[in-house]
Amino acid sequence: MGLLEDLQNRSGNTCELCGSTENLQVYEVPPVSTGGMDGSLLGCSLCIGQIENPDTTDANHWRCMNDSMWSEHDAVKVVAWRMLNRLKSEGWPQDLLDMMYLEDETLEWAKATGEGEEESEKIIHRDVNGNILENGDSVVLVKDLKVKGSSMVAKQGTAVRRISLDHENAEYIEGKVDGQQIVIITKYVKKI
């Protein structure tokens, strides 16, 4: 069975966030490191669209978090925590957040995208030209980089797709080069 079928079986063929049965698709919860069943959820296009584009967020749609925040699956809890934090100025999401409990590892995953932090607290990652980098962006290396702890050299011009940001240090990002996950310093990359 593929991931989609596994998630359909797990969720009873409904959106794991709002319960809709229409336009369901796999959503890998960023930053994507595990993927698969543990790092993904089955979501409807409405939920996924609002997750990926905060400007389209309809607070009333997310009242469904009252149920989905209690999911036994970490990927669902992480998205619920992020959306409740995004909406906490509405009032009711803060009440749900106060009731919600996440294990330390799950909470770290939930905070990895910077959701829930005040704008002044967020760490901003910038490339060599000052462009803001975000999780999932693609970058290209602007110089040859020796990879510490290996004999590998990441060549200038190498594209690194679907990067993930270090949420504690603005100078570090992670990405795969030649199939190996490495840490890259932001001053050596340019956003594509």
From TrEMBL:
Transmembrane segments: none
UniProt cross-references to Pfam families, sorted A to Z: YjdM (PF03831)
Domain of life: Bacteria
Residue stretches making up the PhnA protein N-terminal proteobacterial domain: 6-52
Protein name: PhnA domain-containing protein
